[in-house]
Amino acid sequence: MSTYVSPMQLQINSNLFSIRENELKHLVGNLKPNDVKDDVQFTHTTARIKNNVLLKPVTFQDPKITNHSQVEKNYPPDFQNLFGGKRMINIISVEFQFDGSSELFNYSPNNLSFGSSSNMRVYQPYGNSITVDVELPDLDKNKAISAAKAQMEMTFGVINGNNTQAIQWNMSIESSIDSMLIAKRKELLDFYS
Q1: Total structural domains in the chain?
Q2: What range defines the domain where residue 66 resides?
């Protein structure tokens, strides 16, 4: 099962944007003449830097059940069973695979809000997937996936907000990348000529 954090523990995503902007300055500042000399190499360098700096929005694939086990669990007394007792339950693992920048799970959008009914879990990925365990009395695929999606509600909210802001940031920084690289190319070619 994947671990989770409270959304209150996440830094705001503008910090991530600043880190990426500093990385851009470092990458451009350390370019060498061979990185920009001819058009083909300049195109490769531009693509490499954009790949390192731009954020890829997270997209989730359809969830799938990856495992289950049955365990006996103690239950406290309730209106149906005044003495409590033990019942067999199924622990079902549901996996959410995704594509995109996994760093987006570590930050919250600038406008994150949540109600008192929200579960306060932002699941953290292991590689490019998140696994959520749900407990059900029977092996019901639809109920398991619905329960897992409910547990992922806050994670989905954080990612949707981050995706929107990352797309906006990407559009604004991409033109800066192009202009910085053109200026650095001219500077290097003039300096080494």
Answers
A1: 1
A2: 4-191
Rg (CA), the chain: 24
Residue 163, amino acid: N
Beta strand pairing call for 107-108 and 11-12: parallel
CB atoms within 10 A of CB 111: 9
Sequential DSSP letters for 91-149:
EEEEEEEEES-GGGGGEE-TT----TTS---EEPPBTTEEEEEEEESS--HHHHHHHHH
Total H helices, total E strands in the chain: 5, 8
What's the predicted TM-score (pTM) here?
0.87
First-to-last C-alpha distance (Å) of the chain: 58
In the beta sheet, which residues pair with residue 73?
Answer: 87
Tokens 């910090």, located at residue: 15
> What is the torsional sign of CA 28, 32, 37, 42?
negative
Separation CA 107–CA 2 (nearest Å): 17
CB 105 within 8 A of CB 2: no
Ordered per-residue pLDDT tens for the chain, 193 residues: 789 999 889 999 999 999 999 999 999 999 999 999 999 999 999 999 999 999 999 999 999 999 999 999 887 787 777 777 788 899 999 999 999 999 999 999 987 776 665 688 999 999 999 999 999 999 999 999 999 999 999 999 999 999 999 999 999 999 999 999 999 999 999 999 8
